[in-house]
Design a protein that fits this description.
- The protein contains 15 helices and six strands.
- The strands form two sheets. Strands 1-2-4-3 form a four-stranded mixed β-sheet. Strands 5-6 form a two-stranded antiparallel sheet.
- Helix 1 crosses helix 3 and helix 12 crosses helix 13.
- The chain starts with a helix and ends with a helix.
- The protein has four domains: 55 residues, no CATH class; 127 residues, Beta Polymerase, domain 2, CATH 3.30.460; 109 residues, no CATH class; 44 residues.
């Protein structure tokens, strides 16, 4: 598949395309790059191509224009991440920026990763965090693990009371205990964002290896996952290799097994070998081809966060959305039964909890 070849060229895992794309094929590659929010990442691939394999001039101009917008957006989100981190710190909450701008630091050029929302984890009791935000924004949307913080017009900010979510109660308890164990390690891990006069805390490499797997896993059941999340994890693994920290991988594998995510992670490893030509020594668990083929079909169908998946259409009522998502997730039942079975129960208890608390 030409799209996968272009990804491998962009990340330095392949030299040339198997054939020179036609103008129509180049247009399809550009559209898929937009669907997967990989326009910036793949621009590196375009620069590495020989002159006879480069896209038509007009497409290059359009691609470059999109790159300029990505850079501008990254500068804005970097500023907002530093600002919101400092705001919560002054309010008495230690905090860390999850994924996003922290992930970008692992890229060859951090400014070419398409930015998204800001996810910030606050250190403190759940009720105290939610009360602080809802005093400022009484009508904001509240969930058990996160609450919207609509303080910036152009940047969506989500405040997390816990970094990730699992539906099965025993697995969720193990996950929360894991994050509790590493709180001080995370909230003291300061780093400076490129081109900005300010620092943020981000999860350490050890925590990120597990956390981002849980995050990707969660999105299967909520919206869908895209290749950008996998590129993030690819660069995380490459950083692990570069820093001589591959000894963390068996630790990650053990936590994955405790959270009953082995089938998913085996599938993900196959996808990462298929798409990125991931090195064998960076596999968390052995690659599972059968499960991997199923997962890759889902990724290519859904696009970034499921935004291009017709199965994710919003219904008019909350109960309509509840049943639509429940039926959507049934196709994962034979693959990830624990999360599928407990998903409706978790969402129902969430609904009751919000009603009792009077949250939106």
């Amino acid at each position: 598949m030409l799209f996968f070849e272009l990804i491998r060229i962009a990340i330095g895992r392949q030299e040339t395309l198997s054939h020179t794309p036609s103008p129509e094929e180049w247009h399809e590659l550009f559209e898929e790059a937009k669907r997967q929010t990989l326009v910036g990442v793949l621009y590196d691939g375009l620069c590495r191509l020989s002159a006879d394999q480069k896209p038509p001039r007009q497409l290059l101009i359009n691609w470059h224009a999109t790159i300029q917008k990505i850079i501008i957006d990254n500068k804005r989100v970097n500023r907002d991440a530093i600002w919101v981190s400092e705001r919560f710190r002054k309010a008495g909450f230690r905090n860390a920026i999850l994924k996003g701008q922290g992930n970008a630091l692992l890229y060859p050029d951090p400014m070419l990763r398409t930015s998204g929302d800001i996810d910030i984890w606050l250190d403190g009791e759940r009720d105290k965090i939610i009360d602080y935000v809802t005093r400022l924004f009484p009508k904001t949307k509240v969930q058990w693990q996160e609450v919207e913080f609509p303080v910036r017009k152009d940047t969506s900010i989500e405040v997390h009371t816990i970094p990730a979510l699992m539906f099965h109660p025993a697995d969720r308890h193990r996950m929360e205990a894991y994050f509790d164990q590493h709180r001080d390690e995370i909230f003291n891990n300061e780093t400076e964002l490129p081109g900005e006069q300010g620092k943020i805390c981000i999860p350490t490499l050890r925590v990120n290896l597990t956390f981002q797997l849980i995050h990707i896993y969660r999105h299967i059941f909520n919206e869908g996952i895209g290749l950008r999340q996998l590129v993030d994890y690819y660069y995380l693994l490459q950083h692990c290799l570069k820093e001589g920290q591959t000894g963390l991988l068996p630790e990650t594998a053990l936590m994955v097994q405790r959270l009953h995510m082995s089938r998913f992670v085996g599938a993900l490893m196959w996808v990462m070998q298929k798409v990125f030509n991931l090195q064998d020594e960076l596999l968390i668990l052995p690659a599972n081809e059968r499960e991997g083929r199923f997962l890759l079909r889902e990724i290519m169908l859904a696009g970034n966060f499921g935004q291009h998946d017709s199965r994710n259409q919003i219904k008019q009522s909350k109960w309509g959305n509840f049943w639509q998502q429940t039926l959507r997730n049934m196709r994962f039942l034979t693959h990830y039964p624990r999360e599928v079975i407990w998903n409706p129960w978790y969402r129902l208890t969430q609904f009751i909890w919000r009603k009792r608390k009077g949250y939106q």
